[in-house]
Amino acid sequence: MRGLAGIAACGTSLASHPARSRPPAPYVPRFFTSAEWAFLIAACDRLIPADENGPGARALDVPRFIDMQMDTPYAFGAQWYMLAPFVQGPDNLGYQLPYAPRDLYRRGIAGMNAHAATRHGRPFADLAPALQDDLLRGAENNRLVFGDIPSSVFFDQLLANVMEGAFSDPVHGGNTGLGGWTMLGFPGARADFMDWVDRYGAHYPLGSVSISGETA
Amino acid sequence: MSDDARRLKPVDVVIVGGGWAGSIMAKEMTEAGRSVVMLERGPDRSTASEGAYPASIDELEANFRYKLFQDLSKNTVTIRNNSQQTALPYRRMAAFLPGEGVGGAGLHWSGVHFRIPPDDLRMRSRVIEKYGAGFIPEGMNLQDYGVTYEELEPFFDKAEKVFGTSGEPYMINGKVVGKGNVFSPSRSDHFPLPALKDVYTAHLFRKAAEEAGFHPYSLPAANASRQYVNPYGAQMGPCNFCGYCSGYACYMYSKASPNVNILPVLRQHPLFDLRAGCHVLKVELDADGRRATGVTYTDPDGKVVTQPAEMVILTAFQFHNVRLMLLSGIGRPYDPVRNEGVVGRNFVYQNVTTSTVWLDRGVETNQYIGAGGGGVAFDDFNSENFDHGPLGFVGGSPVWVNQAGVRAIAAAHSGGPPGTPRWGSAWKAGMIDTYRHSLRIDAHGSNMAYRDVYLDLDPTWKDAYGQPLLRMTFDWKDNDIRMNRYVVDRIGDVAKAMGARRVNLTKREFGRPFDTRQYQTTHLGGGAVMGSDPGTSALNRYLQSWDVHNVFVIGANAFPQGTGYNPTGMVAALAYWAAHHIRTTYLASPGPLAG
Ligand SMILES: Cc1cc2nc3c(=O)[nH]c(=O)nc-3n(C[C@H](O)[C@H](O)[C@H](O)COP(=O)(O)OP(=O)(O)OC[C@H]3O[C@@H](n4cnc5c(N)ncnc54)[C@H](O)[C@@H]3O)c2cc1C
Ligand code: SF4
């Protein structure tokens, strides 16, 4: 159980967290092991593949985003109620596992690779895309078991972070070159439509801009 | 816990919680010459720091890491659908997002700013007059507020002037003056500012709703359509539809917040003492439990201290107010088996579902543009504006386009039309099409109060201070599901008039329980309701505890059942109403204001 002190500190701590300053390329993961990193890169690129609609998760540096997030309070479960007892119940009453995002990744990736090895004799990253998709769908539909973690819980965690990485401000390490925003037509931090609010149905002419002033 | 607690110098009034309700009460009490201590568990916040552009325009931090919201790691609730289940902790933010820190949820709310429909204030009486007592379903605790629209009107007016609300009136002093909501009651004055411009989707909705035979109007919005100075001298800038509204402090100083509209003045007042990082544990009562003597809280160093006061005002937000009453022994806890007791009774929510309409691919809906309170609504199926007789349900729902700004991560999550995969190339195509060419229409319905839907203290889980969590027992009931389904079908009529390429009408499904994992709204209500019968209300019509006369409890907890509107306009009016009676009557002779 957390102590009584430090009430005022939370909520403001994220703003000054080191994860916000972007490390130089080539990126070396700080949290993920090399086997986990290979899984992450492969899985992210299946969840958001490069195609005629825009870049894939790998080009958007989504794996880097997720690794950088693993160093924030969020990844340690600091924003979740994590006091015991942990009792499982119906899905609609929400998440009830004692695991923070870091634990979910550690156990979930091991589980995915174990399933890949049992079925196909190779780790996930070395499988053909169609087999990777099968395993991801299996996890999504909760057809795999990773110890006490339902595979859909891991999948949902991964998918949520992948979406965040592709579409959040590049200050967090993903959405490289504003490629996520450009494919969507989202202007980013422009945040001023005084002159555009009643230009009905028209295409907004300005490209995306990031918090740091990067434009696409 | 109070025995070894440090005792501080007594003050006149202690206020628990620094949101809209707390800031209004603090302003009024200092105006009345009383010394006020306002205790806020979260950090001190201001628009200058939290709203500084461009760092504040960060969707990940604001909407996915909940930078300005309640720290659930310290305190949350448990939830179950019925009293046979074990309630489980709400461990991650999802269905509702309570605020924290100075300004409360008022720093980052959206700004839709309503007056409650007059019929909603006397809903039980009205339903019986129109349809007979037999019309009220078994198990529904339908009640009146014990206060009328005419009594509250000056306080709605005052709140709108303080908030700098933009809107189009319909009737002033009985004369039709504008194109506002034809179902809205007469007002004593104009809105302080003209209505916001319609964004494109709202413009299309207005035309289509008219064609479908309904009566569209501009949503009243506490987002300033022009520069404005409120009666306290606080300044607001014009809203630029930045689209980063809900969940953000407004960098334009356009969205009304306690931090912009009240606190800059209040902070200067010599009688006002704001203490952030102070979590109130309970209200202290005298030996016979009839009078509050102050509150006990943990200070920022984790020390437990007692602040003695002549009067305690709870403004900690709807369910925190109820919990503090239960933890302090103020009022009789509700017993759902006997339908007796009052604290925890009539817990309600907002019965909202969002439908999606896709337009031709040549049309850009520009969903990233928007203001939190802006949009167009119709009230033809809200409140008692329509005949419920043949429909057989109680309650109603406004229907609206309220485009607060849809940002990129949210768009990625909402994906494509039903049937589209959640990832891969098909998701990408569906999501991009949906973001560029669709619009969202809400049925923002009321939720009635039921005997077996209530709040009490959880027997198992505790907060970081060792106190029991609040337990919510909540589910959707058939009456409310039927209401939602009827109104959502009317959205179908509007979509047809819009020339929709595709429509997804989202309705509540019978037998599908309340799902804590899906965001709905933070419009929670009831649990310590106002009324004229101490047998069915925890508070009298002045929001004063029936049992402990120097405790006032201000918030949406006072609503006897849900309404189709967003709550804050009503919460602010109730705060000014209670403050008026405290100032004119209670302070001179403290005691029960209603007998
Ligand atoms: C994203 C979002 C959008 C919204 N949009 C709208 C809208 O458009 N229109 C509308 O009408 N409403 C809207 N609401 C609801 C609106 O924000 C609330 O109705 C309103 O802010 C309630 O004000 P309050 O003062 O009662 O509570 P709050 O603003 O929640 O303030 C209560 C304060 O009390 C503090 N507190 C709680 N417990 C303790 C304790 N034990 N000790 C010390 N302090 C404590 C909290 O930290 C908090 O700061 C929205 C809410 C959210 C989250
Ligand atoms: S939309 Fe308007 S009111 Fe809302 S944050 Fe932006 S400028 Fe402020």
**Percentage of helical residues of chain A?**
25-40%
Q: Briefly note the structural class of the backbone of chain A.
A: mainly alpha
Average per-residue pLDDT of chain A, rounded, comes to 90
In the CATH scheme, the class of chain B would be Alpha Beta
Give the terminus-to-terminus CA distance of chain A: 46 Å
The proportion of residues in beta strands of chain B is: 15-25%
The structure class of chain B reads: alpha/beta
Helical stretch tally of chain A: 6
Count of discrete domains of chain B: 1
Instruction: Report the count of strand segments of chain B.
Output: 24
Helix content of chain B: 10-25%
User: How many helical elements of chain B?
Assistant: 14
> Would you identify the CATH architecture of chain B?
3-Layer(bba) Sandwich
What is the CATH topology classification name of chain B? FAD/NAD(P)-binding domain
Order of helical and strand elements of chain A: HHHHEEHH
Give the oligomer, counting copies of the same chain as homo and different chains as hetero: heterodimer
Largest sheet of chain B: 8 strands, mixed
Q: How do the strands of the widest beta sheet of chain A line up side by side?
A: 1-2
